[in-house]
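Exercise 7. Given the components listed, write out the predicted structure of the assembled complex. Treat all entries as one system.
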Amino acid sequence: MSTTAQFCTFYVDGLFFGIDVLRVQEVLRFQEMTGVPLASPMVSGLINLRGQIVTAIDLRRRLALPDRPADQLPMNVVVRSDDGAISLLADEIGDVIEIDGSTLEALPASVRGAARELVTGVHKLKSSLLLVLDLDRALSLPEPS
Amino acid sequence: MSLTDTLQKELVNDLLLESHEGLDRFDRELLAMEAGGGGSEAMNTVFRVIHTLKGTAGCLGFGRIEKTAHCGENLLSLLRDGKLTTTPEMISTLLSLSDALRGMLRCIEAGGTDGTNDHPELKAKLEALQNPDALPAAPAAVVNEAFGLFEDEAPAPTLPATIAPPVPAGPATTVPNESSTRSSVADNAIRVDVGQLDKVMNLVGELVLARNQIVANTTVFDQAALMTASQRLNSITTELQESVMKTRMQPIGSVWAKFPRVVRDVSHELGKKVRLIMDGQSTELDRTIIEAIKDPLTHIVRNSIDHGIESPEKRRDAGKAEEGLLSLRAYHEGGQVNIEIMDDGAGINLARVKAKAVSQNLITAEQSARLSEREAVNLIFLPGLSTAEKVSNVSGRGVGMDVVKTNIEKIGGSIDLQTQPGQGTTLKIKIPLTLAIIPALIVKSGGNRYAIPQVSLLELVRLEGDQARTGIERVYGAPVYRLRGELLPLAHLREQLKTPPRDSLRSTVDDEAINIVVLQADGRRFGLIVDEISDTEEIVVKPLGKQLKGITCFAGATIMGDGRVALIIDVLGLAQYANVAAAANSRALDLDVIHNPVDQQPRQSLLLFSLSESQQLAVPLSEAVRLEEFTAAQVERAGGQEVVQYRGQILPLIRVANHIAGPAAAPSKARDMLQVIVYCESGKQVGLIVDCINDIVEEVVTVRSDAATNGILGSIVIHGKVTDLLDVPGVVRSAIPGLFDRSAA
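Answer.
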C-alpha cells in the first residue's frame, strides 16, 4: 500500500545521504573549479558544465562536517533547482535505490546542528541508515554574518 | 475551484496583454487622425479597441473598466457613423480615456481589482462631447484636464461630492507608481513571428537527427560517419544560435511607438509646435537592451522639446519654420546600433551651461574659462546641472542627463552630443547589439583570471624598477598613484578579494613591476592593481547563481578558451566595495581637464614618439584614440593604401615619416612590429605608423609656430629636448585626401 520512492544516494564524511532521483540532473567525477573570492566558504567554486556555469556547494561544509582530506577529490551531484543547475560536492556516489515509504522515521531528537535543519528524516535500511536531505534548504545558503 | 481560478488568471493576463497593445494602437491611430490621416479604417480600429476592451472586461467582472469604456464607445460610435467630426478637444479627451483605462489595467495587475477611481469627470466629458451644442465653452479647462501625462488627479470642481471619497481610500493603489508606466505582464511577453519559430523548430528537429546519428556511432564506430555527423552538428548549432538570438530581437519601433504621444503631450503643454520624424523603426535590438534604453530615450525626447525647440514666436523671429523638427534615426553600423536624436532648435547655449556649472560650484570660474567647446557640452552630463532656466513640468522630473548617460553606459553604450547654436542639437547614442557578448580585458590576480568589461577601462599603467618601489604613495594608509599629476586612488585586487598572493615565498610588490588598470566607475576614476594583464577578448556573459548574488564585486562569469570559468568584475561594485569611489566626492567634476590642479596656464597631455633616433615628435593625447601594435604581416593593401583589419573594420595606415617635411622624412627602417597611433575624426579612424612610442607627458604648451612646416604645427621643448608637434589632421589630409571630406558630405 505504501508508496515507494527512488533515491540517488551518496556518502559525505561516512554518512549515507539520499535525495529524490528526479531532482538529479547528472552525476560527474571531479571537475576543475574556479574559486569565488568573498563568497560563502560553503561555495567551492564554479564549474563549466558544457558551457553552463554551475555553482558547486561543498556538502561537508554545508553540513558543518570536517573538511575532506586534501588527497580526496569530491564527486559532483548536479541537481536541478529553480535557479538552474547546482552541483553538490559529495565524497562518493552510491546507487539509485528504491525505498518503501514505510521505513521512514523522523530524525532522532538527539541529532543537533546543521543536520537538524537539513535532514528531513531517516530511512531504516537493512544494513544502514539513509538520511534524506532537504534539497531546497541545502541549496539556500545562510546569509553570511 | 482551482481550475477556474487558473482559467480566470489566464484570461485576465490575456486581457492585460491585449489591452495594453490595443491602447497603444488606439493612441497611434488617434494621433494619425489628428494629423489629418487615418480615415474610416483608423476610426474603425479605434472603435474596435475600446469595444473589445469593454466586452472582455465586462465578462471578467471589471465593472469600472466596462463603464468607462462604454462612455468612450458611445462617443466613438457617433464619430464612426459620421454624426460628429473630431476636434482637437475630442482627441485630447479620448487620449485621457486611454490613460484612465491604462491606469485601471495597472490596478488589476497590482491588486486584482480595477481600482477605486470611477473617473466621473472623464465620463461626464465624454458624454458632454456627444452633444456638441450643449457643451459649455470651457476649452481651457478641458485642455488642462486632458493632459494625461502626469495622472492629473485634480477633482472637477462641479462634482466634488462624488470625487472626494475615493481619493483617501488609497491613492497608492489608485495611481500606481509613475515609474512603472508599462505593465510587467506586457513586458514579460514577446511576440515572435511564427515563421521564425518554425525555423527554430526545424533546426531543433535537425539537431535531434544529428544526435541520433552520433549516438548510433557510439555502438558501430565509423569514423567517416562520425565526422559528417559532427560537422552537421556544428553547422546546426551555429544556425540555431543565430535563430534563437533573432527571436530575442525586437525592432526599436516598439519603443518609439509611444513617442508620437509623448511629443504631442509635451509640445501641447509647452505651447510648441513639433513635427516628429522617425526613421529606421525596423532596426532590431536585443530585448534586454530595448528595455534599458526606453526611459533614457523618452527623457531625451522630452528634453529636446522642452529645452531644444523654441516657441513658435521665437522660431518665426529667428527665420525658421514655426513647426520644430524632431527626428529619430536608428541604424546598424559596425556591429553596433546607432540612434540619433536630432532637433532643429536653439542648440545649447554653452555660455549659459558654463555659468550654471560655476554658480552651482561644479567647476571654478578659471576652469570654466579653459574648457573647450566639447568639454563644455559634456557638462550637461554632470549630476546636478539643469540647463532649463525655469523648471517646467517636463524637465526636472528626477531623471537628469547624468542618469541618461549612466544608463546608456551601463549597457555598454556611449553617448555623444553635438550642438550648433541656433541650428539645433544632435545626440548620438551607440549601443551594442546584445549584452550577451562583450569585449573585456583579461587580468590575473591571486592565481585566478578575471574579466574587466572594456567599457570601464581607461588605460593601463605599468611601473617598473624604481617606479614600482616609489610610485605608490600613501595618504592615511590609502594607496594612491600620481597619474600625470593627479592622485589616483588605488585598490589591490588581490587584497580586496582576499585571495592569497600568487607566490607566498616572494614578497608581494617590492621586487616586481606593478600593473595598474585605470578604470572608470560612475564618472570617477580609480586604479586597480593586478598581478598580470593578459589580453582583450570577447566574452560571453553568464549570470551567477543566487548563492553568489550577494557579492557586488562580480557581474557574472564567463568561460575562457581553455574551458575554465573566469569571473567578470563589476567595476562599479568593486569600486564601492573598495571605497575608492566614495559618494562624498560626487559633486567633484571628473572631466579630465578639470581634474588638473588649477594653475594659470593650460597644461596638455602629450604623447611622445619618434620617427628616427634623433627626432622626437608629439601629438596631443586627446587626439589619440588607442595605441596598437601590428605585425608587418597583418598589413594588407586596398586601393593603393596600406590597411589593417582592426576591430571588424578596415583601418587605413599612414606612414607618418613619409608625410612630414624635413630631414625626418627618411623612411623608417623596416620593423616586424609596427607601432600605430589610432586617430579618429568624425567617426573615421586612421592609424599613424610611427617608429617608437616613448612617453606621455603633461606640459604647458607654448608652441613656437615659426618652425611650422608641412605636417608640423611647431616646436616645443619637453624635458630639455626639442619636440615637434605633429599636425595630425594635416598629415591625414595630405596622405589620404578626401577621407574626412567624404564622411562630412
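Discussion: The interface with chain A takes residues 446, 448, 497-499, 542-548, 550-551, 553-554, 557, 559, 563-567 of chain B (CB under 8 Å). Chain B has five domains: 3-139, 194-249, 253-432, 439-595, 604-744.
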